[in-house]
Amino acid sequence: MTSNNNSPKSITIFVCPPTCLPSEIPGLAALLKEVVDENIPLNFCQPFSLKDAEAWWGDLQKGVDAGTEIVILAHKHADDLDQHEKQSGESENTWSGRRLVGCVILYLAQKTNAFHRGEIGKLLVTKEERGSGVGKRLMDCLEDQARKHGRTILVLDTETGSPAEKFYDRTGWIKVGDLPDVVYLPDKSALSSCTFYYKRISRPI
Length: 205
What we know:
Elements: E1 11-15, H1 21-37, H2 50-58, H3 61-66, E2 69-77, H4 83-87, E3 94-95, E4 98-108, E5 117-125, H5 134-148, E6 153-159, H6 163-170, E7 174-184, E8 191-200
Parallel strand pairs: 5-6
Antiparallel strand pairs: 1-2, 2-4, 3-4, 4-5, 6-8, 7-8
Helix pairs in contact: 1-2
């Protein structure tokens, strides 16, 4: 387990063991729905329910069990939850004295000519923790895991012009280019473009 308790809010970053994923799904589903409800493109359209979100995370179990998909979580300790969070009754993403505040997925490419590559999915952080460094710590942990699995290059895409794009620009990712009008926004009100990035995390052998 990878953790760091030096954050002012004592947020722990760790790799979710396969056996623990089912108990994390309610919180992960709530977080995913929260972001989709903000009209951020994540391959889903409205209406998008908690059941839809739970089913999506449940479908990851096979890959997590096989070790080809790695889910990394950020938990905020109960002692650091503010009074509103403690009284809000958000039981869907709070358990055992901790609250889920972020996640990211590392997909380990399985093609025989791509065992050096990793792909990034679903970097999600709750509204109240955005800008606090949680996203950077999640990605740092992800890069460590990618290295441990022999990956030397990572790739991702994100919404063009979004805060996420600025985050990747700041954290050492190399922009490849934009693909215009490639997906609809969740509410289907407009088309959205994607920006593609890569990052080398160690020298190729």
